[in-house]
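An instance noted here:
***
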Amino acid sequence: MSTLIIDDEPLARLMIERLLLPRTEFEIIGQCGTGKDAVNMINQFKPDLIFLDIKLKDMTGFDVLEAISINSPIVIFATAFDTYSLKAYDYFAFDYLLKPFNEDRFYKSLNKVIETFKSKDTDFLQHKIQSLLDYIQPKEQKNNLLKKTIPVPLKNKTTFIESDKIIYITASNSYIEIFTNDKKYLLRNSMSNIMIELLDSNFCRIHRSTIINIEYIKELIHSNFGEIDVRMKDMKQFRISRSYKKEFLTKIGVRK
């Protein structure tokens, strides 16, 4: 079965690839980390199976399925958390992997793929995918309108930070530090989870421990070794890691 791996986390793609390699029934024909690349690759290669991250940097996995011009392949969704959707996946989707998943859960999903592929019940799968999109998309659109703030508990109260006021976010052990123009907030959360909560497309992850709001970029600084730093308007400077550099440059419209 021809297989595409679509996930914006390089380590997640590597893990899926590692788990797939011993299974000779599957041939990995490509990998990508953005929705735009995913749509192009699905249309071009017409895979039998895709592993599809729910939250990509430039669009959702649902947007990808809406945008492709071919019948949907078998889809295994991957999600870090998405509480309201999990029930929908159970009902509508072929299968989903809740990150972090273990090998047993992964191979159980693969065995289910093989059984379905042999049965060639593609009309049934198409119906399930379309039903899922019909169910999910209105909620996604509603959340995009409502989710403009990030709640931060502070002692006996909760402060709501407007997302467009956030300049950057950094990792601090099991916490994250959220920086605005006038204050720093400490929140118990992970970088992956906060990226899902930040529906604003202005946010971009540039390092495993750094998320920035591209509206607050002052300049890029290039070294002689191909490395790039980003300097924010408050003069704070961050290194852009190699694994995030391509997606970052694409997002801000800068060619390498």
User: Anything to note?
Assistant: The mean pLDDT is 84.
